[in-house]
Amino acid sequence: MVPSRSRYVIIDTNMLLTLFEQTFDLENEIARTVGRYEIIIPKAVVQELKVLSTAGKGATKRWAKAALTYIKKKGFRVENEGNDRVDNSLITLAKKLNGVVATNDKELKKRLRE
Question: At 42, which CATH number?
Fold first, then answer.
């Protein structure tokens, strides 16, 4: 049964980079896991991707550029939560929107469960 209301899914930087490193369908995986959804990208994630796209090295630099293009192309909602630290912004948005965070970061997952 698919929920009638969309679930907010807040995306971490590492998840966006993994999207291009491993070439998987992020939106299909989210739909399979949570049903209806709306993707939210914290402004701090966009800022981190911008830094990686200019100061990063090799594949990370390419993936960061691709992630920025992907965000723009898909028209994902970018939310300014007023926090420059990526992990804190993800946690704040998850609480504020009663959403879930898509991340590969073990420490962040631990903080989210607290």
Answer: 3.40.50.1010
